[in-house]
Amino acid sequence: MRFADLVEVYDRIEATTKRLEMTELLVGLVRATPKEDLARVVYLTQGRIHPDYEGIELGLAEKMVTRVLAHATGLEEARIQRMWKEKGDVGLVAEEAIATRRQKSLESTPLTVAKVYENLDAIARESGEGSQERKIRLLSDLLGHASPREARYIVRMVVGKMRLGVADMTIIDALASTFATKADRDRVERAYNVCSDLGEVARVVAAKGLKGLDEIHLKLFRPIRAMLAERLETLEAILERMDKAALEYKYDGLRVQAHVSPEKIQLFSRHLENITGQFPEIVEGLKTAVRDREAILEGEAVPVDANTGEFLPFQEVSRRRGRKTDVERMAKEFPVTLFAFDCLLRNGEDLTPRAYSDRRKNLESMMKAAEGIRLSKVHVTSDVKEAEAFFDEALQAGCEGLMAKALDSRYEAGARGFQWIKFKKEYSAELNDTIDLVIVGAFAGRGKRAGSYGALLMAAYDEKADVFRTTCKLGTGFDDETLRTLPERLKSRRRDRRPPRVDSKLEADVWFDPEAVLEVRGAELTISPVHTAAWDAIRPGAGLAIRFPRFTGRWRDDKGPEDATTVHELLEMYRGQLKQTKKPVPRSA
Ligand code: AMP
């Protein structure tokens, strides 16, 4: 297939604003494409050359491309730079530059789709010493033969800015309408959900028709598209719908799909990027945790504070992205725990058609204890009261809420349905201001903090009762020096027993007279069955807690304990902000 024919369709796709018209253009394109070129056309149309999970990406620096353009056209680099500034799109710069250069020699061979794909693939794979030079040569080779319009798209692909806006589902529509009937569209989509590779689906359906798609199975090291959840507003509604359900803690972290074999382990994100390099501690943990030879597992990765045992905001981990050299250090500082919640493949057997309860049994029997790997907490019930108690427990553990799963449901790749229903906490409100809290207790440190305190127990002031009621454990935001000197600094206030003016359900390792005030920044206020601030005020049997508290570094020596933030203020903040947001607080990451 000539590349010019493909580019003509791109031009028309770019000009349309109607989704229907776009689908028609794509259907025309798929029909006109020879079978052997179809996979390449599918990848190129999406601005990639391989499925995302393979991690083979284009993305040359635009600056480098302008240099190649200068070289290929004989125009001055400064002029190309000026054009780039004006147009802001190197694709358009390439088009104009090629148009203004001298006429192509007549014998120049026209570009084919295969040739363009081959060179782009080679550019993406080049690495190591001398690779820049080789990339430049491969790109010059293409531009030397390209028409102005072809150059526009080649350059956009090369810098990773193709952006035709063609969604996966539109390509699936086009494939279905060419090789199947409308009624069979779901089979095409299913194949895609299982293999996450539209090029592969195109190749198979073009060569073998619909029947061929049934041969696409779940495979180790090729991620499956994740099953998604619906949402309902109450636990009652959920249990009405499912009757009996498996309720699991809903951890607030990053979804991880782990592919495990004796030779290697790979991790994929919810968007199917390969994230193995970002989580060495999960890879290590899985080596011990998985008893079986082969497995595909799913779980949620959450950073855990080694000292408080509490979850940390996910930002602590997302900073690892793209910082290869720091990963090892960060993995030590903020290690994540993987809470495994599903098992999709075991020793070559695809478990996705099996019922949830069966998969869960498999999951439990194939895992053994290992550092950093745990099973998601689950409770099977049809009783609303029991469900509510489990929900409170989940919040207390620092989770977002619960995930309800139908016991007889199969794993539906890529689908959002009521087989999984999420229920997030409604009782929470964002915190914008810092607050001042009083130190009333401390917990012994572990690991790096051995010998000092791992976390402090913090309280707000209750004016009416003239007591201090706890609202969080504080273990984040301390620099090494502060940590080291904490015991000395607090020594004079230390008590062996809980001081009478402190109201706490938690048993601290050491207690302090409520005197020292620290400035604290928190993410939000949430109800809590362990902290005593505003007890019973919002819900019977629950108080208010600060989620993700962090010491700002400021000791409020200017404040006495009675000047600290009061329980009444916390309540006001909670109520005021709940009104403003009126929705569950967004995920922290
Ligand atoms: P949401 O992102 O709010 O739509 O909720 C769905 C996400 O919750 C999933 O994609 C997972 O990343 C996460 N999650 C946390 N805990 C669980 C669990 N026990 N089962 C399934 N998903 C979970």
Structural class per helix/strand content?
Answer: alpha+beta
In CATH, the topology of the largest domain is named D-amino Acid Aminotransferase, Chain A, domain 1
Number of helices: 20
Outline, from the CA principal axes?
Answer: globular
Distance between the termini: 45 Å
Contiguous runs where pLDDT drops below 50 for at least 5 residues: 582-589
Evaluate the radius of gyration.
Answer: 29 Å
The total of beta strands comes to 22
CATH architecture of the largest domain: 2-Layer Sandwich
Major sheet, described briefly? Answer: 8 strands, mixed
**Name of the CATH class of the largest domain:** Alpha Beta
Look at the structure and name the CATH superfamily of the largest domain. DNA ligase/mRNA capping enzyme
Query: Any ligands, ions or cofactors bound here, and which?
Result: adenosine monophosphate
What value does the average pLDDT take?
A: 90
Count of individual domains: 3
Helicity range: 25-40%
Fraction of residues in β-strands: 15-25%
Task: Provide keyphrases for this structure.
589 residues; alpha+beta; DNA ligase i, domain 1; D-amino Acid Aminotransferase, Chain A, domain 1; 3 domains; eight-stranded mixed sheet; six-stranded mixed sheet; 20 helices; disordered C terminus
Would you write up a description of this structure?
It is a single chain. It contains 20 helices and 22 strands. The chain is globular and about 90 Å long. 39% of the residues lie in helices and 21% in strands. It has three domains: 48-159, DNA ligase, ATP-dependent, N-terminal domain (DNA ligase i, domain 1, Orthogonal Bundle), CATH 1.10.3260; 228-426, DNA ligase/mRNA capping enzyme (D-amino Acid Aminotransferase, Chain A, domain 1), CATH 3.30.470.30; 434-581, Nucleic acid-binding proteins (OB fold (Dihydrolipoamide Acetyltransferase, E2P)). The protein is of the alpha+beta class and 589 residues long. Adenosine monophosphate (AMP) is lined by residues 229, 248-251, 255, 270, 300, 341, 376, 403, 422. Adenosine monophosphate binds at residues 229, 248-251, 255, 270, 300, 341, 376, 403, 422.
